[in-house]
Inverse folding.
């Protein structure tokens, strides 16, 4: 290389890992972070911090590697499950279905987060 010339290197962002924690708010609700901004190649880990199993369903195909649309992915109590982001753009909804034993009321509670408050993954370029 000649003296005084510089080579410009395009910096590709290093893939990052994000955790989406699913937590219980007794007796009948739970919390899921509403929106997560990510890039293609990043990893999203769903961490179930509730007292029972949860199921995650993606609304679209080819968003997270290994996740099929409307085919729930089971994540047991305390489990963390990672997925690589494969979508290249867009806003993608997912739903979280839960089931747990309400010890105060001595009955099983079930529900889901979807609709206007539906959690989303936004792909940044």
């Amino acid at each position: 290389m000649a003296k005084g010339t510089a080579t410009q290197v395009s910096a590709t962002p290093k893939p990052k890992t994000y955790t989406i924690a699913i937590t219980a708010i007794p007796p009948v609700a739970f919390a899921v972070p509403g929106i997560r901004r990510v890039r293609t190649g990043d990893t999203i880990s769903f961490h179930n911090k509730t007292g029972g199993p949860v199921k995650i369903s993606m609304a679209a195909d080819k968003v997270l590697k290994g996740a099929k649309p409307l085919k729930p992915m089971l994540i047991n109590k305390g489990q963390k499950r990672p997925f690589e982001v494969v979508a290249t753009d867009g806003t993608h909804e997912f739903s979280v279905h839960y089931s747990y034993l309400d010890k105060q009321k001595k009955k099983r509670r079930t529900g889901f987060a979807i609709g206007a408050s539906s959690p989303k993954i936004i792909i940044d370029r």
